[in-house]
User: Fold these one by one.
Assistant:
Number 1:
Amino acid sequence: MAQAPALPAGFELPLEARLPRIGAVDAVALEERAASLAKRSIKREAKVLALLLAIRTTDLTTLEGSDTPGKAAAIASKALRPDPSDPSLPSCAAVCVYPNLVPAVRERVAGTSVKVAAVATGFPSGQYPTAVKVADVRATVELGADEIDMVIDRGAFLSGRYAKVYDEIVQVKEACGDAHLKVILETGELGTYDNVRRATLLSIAAGADFVKTSTGKIAPAATLPVALCMLEAIRDVYEETGRRVGFKAAGGIRQAKQAIQHLVLVHETLGSEWLTPQLYRLGASSLLNDILMQLRKERTGAYQSGDYFTLD
């Protein structure tokens, strides 16, 4: 098995000397395991629990140039109460928006369990100077964000400037203060599973609280093999160091069936300890309605028209 290039000097320090070696990813084995786990069948009772868990771990997201404070507030209301006709349903984990819409979301979810997440650091390209990225994060936190979703500089990463990517994450993490940091790899642009694993470990070493697959703007995004590759890196770090790092799958997850497949991946790779909003998230915009329709079917035996649910 070929050995991956060495990391920059000092890379291992945040995880002391115990950071798992990068190594090379066995693509065939990875894809076969992901495909096998995707075929797992679960009983009706477990399916309902999985759908409820998917709601609890969803970052309900709107990241369009046409977003308004009114739309952000409406999304926040839906995150709080996904189906107004069924108060037994849990709230979503967070609402993810652009920084200038943080106040509108903050006002709507104040005093609840729903977190306010915002993208920053030149989302979605990441092609901004480091000083601008850091200032962006500080301003977003000051606006009231609980969580920051940053993007790595893929140009720097792909050209082998790992130290630059690492240093930026370190500076952004510091700028976050008490806010949690999710580091977006944009796996659709990384090219190989080896790069996905390397970027995951680099982000963790630099201080990421979560690692996230994608911005949702590039395809392919949160494919099952890519998610499994990142989850195995998280598992290896935990086994080596005892440090738990969260995972967020985002981009292209639009159906309840896909959400359940991702939950199975997490359960089989990291265990039930990770199946909480504190360590797992699904980034989605259109997924929630399909989950609501599937839940209605499981409870009533009949599909409910999508017209009965608000559009996200």
Number 2:
Amino acid sequence: MRDFNKWLKTFKSTLADWTYYTDFEKIYKNVNDIKIELNILNSLIGSKNIEEDFKVLVEKYPEVLKVIPILLAKRDDTIEIITQEGDIIFDFKEPNFSAIEYSIFMRNTGLFDLLENHIISDLTDYVKGVEVGLDTNARKNRTGKSMQKHVEEHLISLGFEHGKSLFSEMSAIEIEKIFGVKVSSIQIENRANKRFDFVVRTPNMVYGIETNFYSSSGSKLNETARSYKMLAQEAENLKGFTFIWITDGKGWNYAKNNLQETFDSHKHVYNINDLKEGKLKEVLK
């Protein structure tokens, strides 16, 4: 019998590698895609008559409007403003107001002040900084992808090959069609056609593998633990199929009771340390 508390102590605090904190390649690409429009707007820096200069600029180069949202750290094409007269929605992809009204937007949001008072000297550099800030929101997604990559590399190291004995993002319907194992009865996460992060095929068994990593607390952890406990229970009745859950992250310290329920009821719950110790190799025979 495995000791849950000892197991939990081996959980990692992070999966961060060198590129985890900021994806500079993506940032440089995003800025490069709009550098022409940003450089056109650069002509407004230090302007003494910025409203009029902006109006002329927009009438001559209306495409510059599309980069205004990113100056406010927004990726949307539209921005909604609540005023005493009512709600206003500015569309920067398909302009729905005159240049004068967009000028009012620029003044009231502080963007004209940023430009005319020379608070910045170059909008491309400014937007790089904005992109760095926005990129922090993507870290949670990068953590999940890092976990999948870690597990994938481990499976490959065990000798499994993509397209032959290892498959990514395979659905229950695909498992039935390719391997003849009826798993479509699994109803989980409000989806009739469950997809698994990985599917591994051995001579005697098909394994559906789910992976995740939680570095912080949140309601999703309890939901995930309950969901995978149910999935594991349903999978027990399926001939020729085994469900494996590989999870990690110190965030589980805040939801350890629900995690322990799944751990105690399903023997195929592992973490990164288990992979290191060869536990998965013992199972996938």
